[in-house]
Every structure is written in C-alpha cells, then in structure tokens.
Give the backbone structure.
Amino acid sequence: MRRPLDVERLAKLATGRRFLEPRRRGKYLLLDLEPAGSLLAHLGMSGNLQLVDASSPLRNHTHLRFDLENGRQLRFVDPRRFGFVDWLEPGEEVTDGSLVALGIEPLDPGLDEEMPPMYHARSAPLKSLLLDQRLVAGIGNIYAVEALWRAGIHPRRAGNRTSLSRLANLARVVQVVLAEAITQGGTTLRDFAGTDGEAGYFAVKLSVYGRQGEPCTRCGATIRSTVIGGRTTAWCPTCQR
DNA sequence: CCAGTATCCTGCAGGC
DNA sequence: TGCCTGCAGGATACTG
C-alpha cells in the first residue's frame, strides 16, 4: 500500500479495543479506537472497507482483516494499492503530514466565503484547483467535473480569470453536488462495492462525467472530453464558458 | 512558489 | 480465445 504498515504492531495495538464512531477529514477516514489511538485510512481509487461475516469469502487483494467480537470482520480491500491504512497515536492527528496539509471542508458553511479569494489567487484551471486537496479537501474527479457543469464554467478557466461572484456560485454548487451525492448514497462505478462487499450499484445519475459523445441534458450539445492536470474532464462546449 | 507531468498498481474493456 | 493497449475514483515526487 501507499504507506507501509507494521501489521504485527497494529495487531498488538488494536487487540481488545473497541471501535468508536468513525470520522472523516477530506478523503481520509479516521477509525478511533477506545480508549485512544486511531486507524487512518484512505481508499485511493480502488479501496473498499467491508464489514462482513468472518466466513464470507475473501476477495482478492484483501490487505487487512480485523476479527470483531460479534463474529464479523472489518476488511480493507484495495487492488491498486493506492490507498492505505496507518496507525495514529493519540495526538498524531495534528502532525500527520497528509492531514495537516488539507484545506477547508467542502461542506463547511464558510466555503462560499473562503473559496472565492483562494481560487482567485491562482492561475491554474479551476478543474485542477477543485482537485487540489490543500485548498478544499474532499472533492474528487467526478464531483469536480459535475460541479463545473452545474455552475456553467469551463473547466480550463483559470482561477484568477474567474469573477469572485462566479467563484461564490461555484462554491455553492460544490456543496449542492456533494450533498445530493451523499443523500443518494454516493457514486458507484465498475468495481465499487458497499460495506457489505456486494457489487456496486449505480446510485447517482451523472450529468457530464463519463458522458462524452452524449447530448448535454441542459442544451443538447455533444459532451466533450479532454485531459486537464492529468485527469479526464468531461464538459459541455456550449453551456460551460 | 506555482503549474504541470510521471508514477505507483491491478483490472477491465475494446481492438485485432 | 488470447494478446495487447489504454484507461480508471488519487496523491505525491519531481521538473521546469
């Protein structure tokens, strides 16, 4: 995995402890254990946390298993190994480099105050800025693309060439897009799976992501696709300016 | 400091 | 059927 893990040490640290309510910061998951210490996890692109019966068949690339008292197992599966699980000692949360670097939470009520000046100070394309976790932490490729479409902004438009009012609108749209996705249970593609380990289902209907060649649902123009900052970016050439 | 690219790894879809 | 290529939800080291 992306971070090496001392499994023996983790086993010693975790044995006999109880999982508390999970938390999240950006795309990082924090699984606190009682009385102290946490698992820090990132799912990368292909990671999955499963909560299944201990007898449930093992999927390929299961890197970690926790036996629980109720006969179930918490499993970390990640074929591409872009994700990781790490152990955080109490207090380490505020020193861990990945966490410390994270920007504001996208669902923070202050987003439409903070995001516009932040993006306005940059010359990179908005698409790249949305994916920069040091600015706003938690937006991925799908929702970056969806938000730009919803806001009617061209993904290649530079931050410093976008008015503050349009950026404020983008901030509001980001919150709407994420909130809707959460309500609907997230986006699942291909090998995605829920915590029950079952195959993914298509929950969220996407307006532009993956729709290149198809008509824009707003104006009928043909959705196009390009690469920005190394990431595939779908957009409508007519209603995104 | 900033922006853009290469890279890590496996699975899968599509072309031949 | 099987082989090959390109592409995929992300983060980060590196280059210019």
User: Anything to note?
Assistant: Residues 145 and 151 of chain A are 10 Å apart (CA to CA). Helices of chain A lie at 7-14, 97-100, 111-120, 126-131, 141-151, 164-183. Residues 164-183 of chain A form the longest helix (20 residues). The radius of gyration of chain A is 20 Å.
